[in-house]
Amino acid sequence: MAILVQSNKKPSVTFPSQTGSIVTFNSQYAGLPLKSCKVNIPVTQEGTGDPSLTNVRNFVGVDSLDFSATGKNLLRPNRSSATVDGVTYTVNEDFSITTSGEYQGQSSIFIASYLVTLRAGTYILTGCPSGGSYSDYVLRIENSQAQRIALDTGNGNVFTLTKDQPVICRIYVYSQNGVGKTFYPMVRMVDSDPAYEPFGDNKLFTFGQTIYAGELDVLTGELKATHKLAIFDGSESWVKSSSYSGSYFLVNWVQNNSISRSTDHLQNIGTTVDNLTDYSAGANVCFFEYSLNYKVNGDLYPTVEDFKNFLSQNNLQLLYPLPTAEVINLGGMEISTLQGENNLFASVGETTVQYIKIGG
Fold first, then answer.
1. Which of 22, 40, 217, 315 could anchor a disulfide with 222, C-beta 3.0 to 4.6 Å?
2. What is the pLDDT of residues 67-79, one digit of tens each?
3. Same domain, yes or no: 247 and 315
């Protein structure tokens, strides 16, 4: 006799968290909401090495962030059909592209995907119909200057980016043999399933100001600006220290900017100075030490005016943390899991995602 035993045990639910320039995970279920999704906007400076008079490293801010939530296809598609030099490119419902019309004897070029920033890594380009060539038709990945990064003629092409880079995908038709073809443009991780899949979704967050460091909550659209950039060009009120040779104090700047006088609140000098030191020099006085031993007209420690003239030609940049982050509400992005492979990434910074996992 067979006995049916029913279990009331519920499947386990966990909330794994992943961080990376691209966050990749697999889901058994479509439509599950993410628990959280945040992008860290890091402090970024030009160049490398320690900043100095001979190695100026200005701070680099961002005024927008493009976030993508997709499956394995990382190319954001052109959704508009067009006719270019006699060849009609029809964008189908799945974002594949079918060519028709009459080739007119010159190269016909169609943008298959908009610029999207791919992070450093190894990818594969696929989607060109078999039999492609520079005599008939090809599918190309290019940088923002239209220089070739990868070329597919029907067999796919593996390529590696050594740094984060905006890329665009174009279809080139060179003869009538390129008409009556359907292209399936896709860039994916090299170990992903090769079957074609359309792109998911993206949102461009426009900040309305330059952000030098902070965090964006993608789901709520809350942007926290954690740092401010101060640029000193010699127009400020400076006084020379009588106690410390080579030191100059900036009057009233601390009080006016509500910054705690602590070296913890001084970070990364962009240009012209090596060190900033806290002298706790009074309620209305900033605390900079100009520690480079440079000479003006043979004077090792020049006058305040010499120093201000120097700053007018060599602006000092100071990026400092705010005691309380400034919050900007931008409107969030709705993201649900896709069944199978999920890829989430931003055009800058690292993304941290916490998602729902049901079962083992």
1. 217
2. 999 999 999 999 9
3. yes
